[in-house]
Amino acid sequence: MLREAIYHRPKDNYAYACTEEELHIRIRTKKNDVPSVKLLFGDPYNWKDGEWVFETKEMSISGSDTLFDYWFIAISPPHRRLRYGFVLQDGKEAVYLGEKGFSDEAINDTAFYFCFPFLNSIDVFQAPEWVKDTVWYQIFPERFANGNPDNNPENTLAWGSVPPSPDNFFGGDLEGVIQHIDHLKTLGITGIYFTPIFTAHSNHKYDTIDYMEIDPQFGDKETFKRLVEICHQNDIKVMLDAVFNHSGYYFPHFQDVLENGQDSKYKDWFHIHEFPLQTEPVPNYDTFAFTPFMPKLNTENLEVKEYLLEVGRYWVREFDIDGWRLDVANEVDHAFWREFRKEVKAIKPDLYILGEIWHDSMPWLRGDQFDAVMNYPFTTNVLNLMAKKAISPAEFVENMSSVLHMYPKNVNEAAFNLLDSHDTPRILTECGGDTERMKQIYSFMLTFIGTPCIYYGDEIGMTGGMDPGCRKCMEWDESKQDKHIFSHLQRLIALRKEERLLANGGNLSFLPSDYHEKCIAYTKSNGKQTLLIILNMDDAATSFKVPFDIDTETISDIWSG
Amino acid sequence: MLREAIYHRPKDNYAYACTEEELHIRIRTKKNDVPSVKLLFGDPYNWKDGEWVFETKEMSISGSDTLFDYWFIAISPPHRRLRYGFVLQDGKEAVYLGEKGFSDEAINDTAFYFCFPFLNSIDVFQAPEWVKDTVWYQIFPERFANGNPDNNPENTLAWGSVPPSPDNFFGGDLEGVIQHIDHLKTLGITGIYFTPIFTAHSNHKYDTIDYMEIDPQFGDKETFKRLVEICHQNDIKVMLDAVFNHSGYYFPHFQDVLENGQDSKYKDWFHIHEFPLQTEPVPNYDTFAFTPFMPKLNTENLEVKEYLLEVGRYWVREFDIDGWRLDVANEVDHAFWREFRKEVKAIKPDLYILGEIWHDSMPWLRGDQFDAVMNYPFTTNVLNLMAKKAISPAEFVENMSSVLHMYPKNVNEAAFNLLDSHDTPRILTECGGDTERMKQIYSFMLTFIGTPCIYYGDEIGMTGGMDPGCRKCMEWDESKQDKHIFSHLQRLIALRKEERLLANGGNLSFLPSDYHEKCIAYTKSNGKQTLLIILNMDDAATSFKVPFDIDTETISDIWSG
């Protein structure tokens, strides 16, 4: 038994409350090294005749990646307290593992073991229930639809007349979204994620000028209010994009510092290294990346904090939005996000808080900050297998098992799964224009754990490379829309609504990565019903042995019927 | 190279801000397996000609335990942002490790690497500066000194006339502490930790009746105010014990529930499973352990929360106390402790918050909750080697390296190191009455990293087993006091004050566990000056080769002169 490979920590993805009653415990061992792992557990205070009272229970493998097996057990301690360890057994030895290390025998001292001291309800990670069942649609407002030419910016170009560039404008607006609500309704989506809509300088609006106003190019507050109402009438949630890491260059407070330097009453709103401010050759103030046009906000400053918290509250309170997507969320302090969560959830307890973080996000997903992050590790793995054919099905299953074991199950269920966005090439382009691959990718995403998002236009076969290529005007000419993709997506979404197990009910398990050379397969099960999803990665047809006893089970094909 | 043994996570004890400028990065490898580890790092946004700009720097081993080597590097990223990975090299191969796994070559995509997105000052773990230099003295008030017979409880026994029992009283009080302040001053201690002093039923006072009053057996608020003032005049900090996990049975709010059941307006102050309440055979409400006399408080209830927060604020605001020790802190919700920290630090930013947690406490030590926990893993290891002779010096060094690598360096510096308490046998008893061992243990504790605490009476050689044995009346008859222990401790405390490096200045490193068979040795160094502490664990004298070039360095013996 390779002891160096064995890992557990008594918190985060290895030990967490999944509900107010149920703890999940995981442990990692070297792959194919340990045939049996048991949880040894008891109430920390339950002693009898000087002996700690404990029991043991078999754990099972919930997944494997390149190097490791991950073991899992769910347990509901009657007094919500748990001391526990592990009994690892192979042909040669049985080893006991506690916080104090390894032992050859069970130790009768609770101090040896790991501790989950108390399952306090308030500390349980709880994303809004509705998120699991939601299918998102991302809209980049400048490019979705021009519904009201009266608010066109200067130099607005004819819709789709030229390729998108970093600084051209086509007049997309909120009225355009309202006018096309039927398109979304027909597709079946149940949530819209809008990239920023507040007054800003650029076409992407990530350089905010006024956090309290709708950009006049997009409409006004009355229009936005109407848009939210129409969405809600159509059972569509609305999520806005908050850019709190930095303001735009033309944010009046920053302009004031540019003008008045040391004397500006806003000088502590930013991280300024010296006066006067300079933007060239490098800015002498903190910025997003090295962009002088996006000065980093000092979210530790009490005035800034209160200002941004009020922004957070305002759009929830006055416009009833359902979610906040937080731009560059990882570079803003944790203390700010804790307050942000408290403030906005006080107004709307089931608001969805989604952070833009591309890397391991456990520190933001402990229940006190975000409900989810944008699941780019999911994206990378899906693209590598199904779009780029750069990895094998076995590698895919191993990578995805790594991703799933990075977080608790209740975190995975609310994860924001995306294939592309305004920051990446479009999925069809990643697939080299192969619509079959693309359709397969959607089949995966819409049957997987997490809350899936479709980037506007993907559903009708739009293409485009990296920004600005991926920000083309939406194609409304039906003769140029790919109806096959649309109806494939429509069918998947409908199926996801019908079969609740597809939308995060039950437990997901991959079949072992060596089960089939060409296919990936996974089950979703609630104990009574089990769905099996099989995706063939090969161009040729293949046969697949269903891993059930079809004589005793009732089996039906919910896709082909 | 054993890949399964290699571990890093981009937060907590493996990646943390030690100051507002400096990040510490650690990684774990199999012991004696990897001869060289480098950090590969750069600003996430620093690209040149389509290539990410990074550099590499050698890491060094900061400690080893039974299975692993721990590598360390400190780094100050100019823009407070870091993407990083590791280059691990042995005779056969160089391997690159990032968040996405292992690679045989450096990868030119920042997404492959780990991320420390931004060093926000407010998120840096910061315990009060004064704590590192403090030497604590724990007082169990009922047993320290009876200074005012007028407030003796009924049936007060003559001081020390009989052994302590779970329910006898000897009249110890606050006036007694005031009268003996010179004893403490002569010893040299600079902080007192009082076990509870609020009105309660038992002699230990952990079953609070009134959180807003001094127990009349101990004195009154005027006396306590005077005590704090006298302590402060003598440069002694005062820490009180807060029992927020549970109240006492005679807490009026609980009595109200006992009396009025469902109709009590305090019924939601506790976790009650059904009415009427019963205490036998098992309580039908949550308790501390299974003790019906300590009903668990519902700290998620807004009224309870506000009540306890006001307790926290009140004694700081009105009496200027310097620290709160939090009883059974691990069973109270994290959300409560986050608010508690905010509230009490708003009144006194350098208040010390110390949680009673016996197990891995990383989740409470991330900067948002506690400044320290009671360092029982330290205690266990010290006792096993130096009191019980149950482990070898080499095992001790390995275990202590494990303990040190469980937490960030700035957390270790504020750790509350104790040898014994009202909850354990006394140290001299653990040493089998051997005062030489005991003196050596103090030599270790007072030269080690952390903030050390002496349990009342240990300094004059008191003995006693588990509670109630360890709660004897303080021995004030000088003829029965061990003056050798006292002067040894006095000298160590004075030395710790004189040589700031002893009190948490600089970096601590153990000499390798196989450096000497009988001795443990460690250095504390600030780059200019290095202190070497050598402790011989054998009864016989031994020789020890100093690991310095004594021809080129100036060396002096700060203990023997």
Question: What is this structure's SSE topology?
Answer:
Two copies of one chain form a homodimer.
Chain A: E1 15-17, E2 23-30, E3 36-42, E4 47-48, E5 51-52, E6 55-58, E7 60-64, E8 68-75, E9 82-89, E10 94-98, E11 101-103, E12 114-116, H1 129-132, E13 136-139, H2 174-179, H3 181-187, E14 191-194, E15 198-200, E16 208-214, H4 221-233, E17 237-242, H5 252-260, H6 302-319, E18 323-326, H7 334-347, E19 352-355, E20 372-373, H8 376-387, H9 393-405, H10 409-412, E21 416-418, H11 427-430, H12 435-445, E22 451-455, H13 483-498, E23 507-510, E24 519-525, E25 530-536
Parallel strand pairs in A: 13-14, 13-22, 14-17, 17-18, 18-19, 19-20, 21-22
Antiparallel strand pairs in A: 1-2, 2-8, 3-6, 3-9, 4-5, 7-8, 9-10, 9-12, 10-11, 15-16, 23-24, 24-25
Molecular structure report:
- 2 copies of one chain form a homodimer.
- By secondary structure, chain A is of the alpha/beta class.
- Chain A has 3 domains: 3-123, Immunoglobulin-like; 129-244 and 302-502, TIM Barrel (Alpha-Beta Barrel); 246-298, Alpha-Beta Complex (Oligo-1,6-glucosidase, domain 2).
- Chain A is 23% helix and 21% strand.
- The first copy, chain A, is built from 13 helices and 25 strands.
- Chain A has helices at residues 129-132, 174-179, 181-187, 221-233, 252-260, 302-319, 334-347, 376-387, 393-405, 409-412, 427-430, 435-445, 483-498, and strands at residues 15-17, 23-30, 36-42, 47-48, 51-52, 55-58, 60-64, 68-75, 82-89, 94-98, 101-103, 114-116, 136-139, 191-194, 198-200, 208-214, 237-242, 323-326, 352-355, 372-373, 416-418, 451-455, 507-510, 519-525, 530-536.
- In chain A, the strands form 6 sheets. Chain A has an 8-stranded parallel beta sheet. In chain A, strands 3, 6, 9, 10, 11 and 12 form a 6-stranded antiparallel beta sheet that branches. A 4-stranded antiparallel beta sheet of chain A has the order 1-2-8-7.
- In chain A, strand 9 (82-89) and strand 10 form a beta hairpin.
- Chain A is globular, with a radius of gyration of 26 Å.
- The mean pLDDT of chain A is 96.
- Chains A and B meet through helix 7 and helix 8 of A and helix 7 and helix 8 of B.
